[in-house]
Amino acid sequence: MDEALLEAFHATAYHVCLDTLTWATIRVDLPLPAQLAEVVGSQPWAFVTAWNPQARRRPPAENLAAQRELLAALLNQPGATVHPAIGVGSSGWSEPSLFVVGVGVPSLDKLTKAHGQLAYVHGEADGAALLRVLD
């Protein structure tokens, strides 16, 4: 991954919708906000998307279909809970996303790679948000 794209991932605000009025924002290398730490408890969590694989724009209908597939796969993981989310870059770029709790890194790696993603944000319990760059 080139330096500019890596920088963009770090500069992105990762917004999670907890209910109709409550949003919490994740930032790479910082601890989870208190509202999300309560939701996560002691479980692993991740912020993922199926939109725009390989950081290349594609038609909205294709993105929506892929996102539905990813959501279905996440909901089939035992013990997983999923919240709607959106990543918003400093340049104004944004992608609908999913905040998932209760799914470990091996499963997340497999699912995100299957959807052509270059990286995702994840963590354990209320620890720091980490950027996981995929091969």
Summarize the structure.
With 135 residues, the protein is α+β, with helices and mostly antiparallel strands. The protein has one domain. It is 31% helix and 30% strand.
Explain what this protein looks like in three dimensions.
The protein is α+β, with helices and mostly antiparallel strands and 135 residues long. It has one domain (3-133). 31% of the residues lie in helices and 30% in strands. The chain contains four helices and seven strands. It is globular, with a radius of gyration of 14 Å. The mean pLDDT is 96.
List the helices and strands and how they pair.
Layout: H1 3-11, E1 13-17, E2 23-26, H2 34-40, E3 44-48, H3 60-75, E4 81-88, E5 94-101, H4 105-114, E6 119-124, E7 130-133
Antiparallel strand pairs: 1-2, 1-4, 3-5, 3-6, 4-5, 6-7
Helix content: 25-40%
Order of helices and strands: HEEHEHEEHEE
- The total count of helices amounts to 4
Fraction in beta strands:
25-35%
* Number of spatially distinct domains: 1
Secondary-structure class: alpha+beta
Strand order across the largest sheet: 2-1-4-5-3-6-7
How would you sum up the major sheet? 7 strands, antiparallel
| First-to-last CA distance | 9 Å
Total strands: 7
Q: What's the shape?
A: globular
Q: What are the low-pLDDT stretches, counting only 5+ consecutive residues below 50? A: none
- Give the overall average pLDDT: 96
- What is the radius of gyration computed over CA atoms, rounded to a whole number of angstroms? 14 Å
